[in-house]
Amino acid sequence: MDSTLLSNLHFVFIPFLAPGHILPMVDMAKLLAKRNVKVTIITTPLNSIQFNASIKREIESGSPIELLLVKFPNAESGIPEGSENLETLPSMDLKINFFRALDILQKPIEEVLEKLSPSPSCIVCDKNIACVADISIKFNIPRILFDGTNCFNILCNHNLHTSKVYETVSDSDSLIVVPGLPHRIEMRKSQLPVIFTPGPDKELNAVRERVRTSEATSYGILLNTFEELEGEYVKEYQRVTGHKVWCVGPVSLTNKDDLDKAQRGNKNTHIDESQYVNFLDSWPPCSVLYVCLGSLNRVSPEQLKEIGLGLEASKRPFIWVIRGAYRRDELEKWLKEDGFEERVKGRGILIRGWAPQVLILSHKAIGAFLTHCGWNSTLEAICAGVPLITFPMFADQFYNEKVVVQVIDTGVSVGVENSIHFGDEDKFGDGVLVNRDNVIKAIEKVMGEGEEKEKRRERARKYVDLAKKTIEEGGSSYHNMSMLIEDIMHIKGLNQS
Ligand SMILES: *[C@@H]1O[C@H](CO)[C@@H](O)[C@H](O)[C@H]1NC(C)=O
Ligand SMILES: *[C@@H]1O[C@H](CO)[C@@H](O)[C@H](O)[C@H]1NC(C)=O
Ligand SMILES: *[C@@H]1O[C@H](CO)[C@@H](O)[C@H](O)[C@H]1NC(C)=O
C-alpha cells in the first residue's frame, strides 16, 4: 500500500459507554494503528481510565493513535456525577436518561471532529450511539458500524425481522425456528432480544428502533469475529443484506504481553495476580472451573447462591468472579453467614470485581468457563481453547450460546429458558433461572474424564491456532483489515478528485 496515502487516512472510533463494548473497540483501534493508519478514539474521562495506560504504551511504541475526551453531560441528562457508563448508573430507571446523554454528545463530538487533522476519513462507531448517523451525514464521512457481537447474531436478527416468525406465536414459551440459517436453530420467543418483545416504554422502544435502522444506512459492518469460526454465516449475511462485512477478530489477541492482559479493564481488586497464577499452577491440566457472569449482568443473589452451592457440590476447584453491585449486600451477607467461603477454602477462590480474565483463561489448569455468553467473554474463551458452560441472560447472549453449543460445538448449555432483560430484574421474583442441580449437571457434562468430553476439548483446542493465525499476516482477519483500509482509501481518493 502507498504509505503517503496511509498517512492521509484518519479513522475515528466512538465506542459505546459500557465496559464490554469499549475494550474490544479499543483493541480494534490499536490493530488499525499498528498498520500505520492514524486513529483517534473519542470517549468521556471516566470511561478512558480503563484503557488510557495501554494507549499511552501504544503511542510510546510509535503507533499513530490518540485519545480525545468529551465531557459526559451529567447535569443535562440528569445522571449523577461519577457515572458515565451503563454499568455504573445508580438506577436502571436512568437508562433512558443515559440514551438521552448519548444524543447530547452529538455537539461535543462534532466540535472534536471539526478540529481533527487530517480530517476524518471514516467513523467507526458502536451501533448503540445513534446520533453518529446524523454526524456522518452532516460531515459526509462514511460510518462503519462496530457490532460487538458476531455474524450469527446479526443474521438471526435480520432473518427474524424480515420473516416476522416471532409474531406467529403468542406464547413466550413457544419454540421458533430461525429461518434461513445454515443450522437448524430453535429459540424460545422468551429468549429473543428485547426488540422482538418490546415493553411499554415508548421512548426506549424508539431508541431501539433507531439503533436497528441505523444498521441499514451504514457503509458496512466491522465485526469482532473471524471467518474460520462462522464463515457460512458471514457469506449468508452478505448475500441476504448486500452489506459489506469485515471480520477482523479476535481483537483481544492484540494484547500479547501479559502486562496488557493483566491491565485490561479496571483494577479494583486487592489481590495481586500472582495469587491466581499460583493457585492455578497447583492444579492438574483442565481441572479448574472458571466462573464469571459478566460485568453488565444483574444476577440475583438467590441465583448466585444456587451457582455457589452447585460449585461446592461439584467438588472441583474453581475461580469465581463476582461482579456488579445489583443487590450485592444480600449476597455478601449470605457468603458470610452461610460459611460458603470458609467451606470451599483451598479449593475455590472468589474474586470480587475485575479479574484478569484473559490471563486466567489461558492457563492450562482451566477446564471450563461458566459464562453469561457475552460475546467478549465467549470469544476470549474460544481463543483460549476452553470449553464453555453457557448461562445466557439477555440480548445477544442466547444467540452466542447457540454459536458455542451448535455451530462450533465446544460447549454445554446450563439450560436457561427465559431472558431477564437488562433493567427488568426486579420483575422476576427471585430471579432464579436454573437451580444448583442444573449447574452440577452441566459441570459434570464438561469436566473430568470420558471420550465425549475429550472430543469436545479437542474441538475447543483447535480454535487456539485458528484464532492466532487469522490475525497474522496471511490470515483472513488480517486480510479483511487490509481490505477495509483499501476501501476507505479508495473512497477518500474519490472524494478528493
Ligand atoms: C471481557 O469481559 C471480561 C469480564 O467481564 C473482562 O475481564 C475483559 O477484560 C473483557 N474483555 C474485553 C475484550 O472487553
Ligand atoms: C488515565 O486517566 C486518569 C484520569 O483522567 C489519569 O489520572 C491518569 O494519569 C491517566 N493515565 C495515563 C497513563 O495517562
Ligand atoms: C475477508 O476475508 C475473507 C477470507 O480471506 C474473504 O473471503 C472476504 O472477501 C474478506 N472480506 C472483505 C470484505 O474483504
UniProtKB/TrEMBL annotation:
The keyword DNA repair belongs to this UniProt entry's keyword annotation: no
Pfam families linked to this entry: Glyco_transf_N, UDPGT
Domain of life from the UniProt record: Eukaryota
Entry EC no(s): 2.4.1.-
InterPro entries noted in UniProt: Glyco_transf_N (IPR058980), UDP_glucos_trans (IPR002213), UDP_glycos_trans_CS (IPR035595)
Domain Glycosyltransferase N-terminal: 11-251
Keyword terms, alphabetized: Glycosyltransferase, Transferase
Gene Ontology terms, MF aspect: UDP-glucosyltransferase activity
Family: Belongs to the UDP-glycosyltransferase family.
Protein name as catalogued: Glycosyltransferase
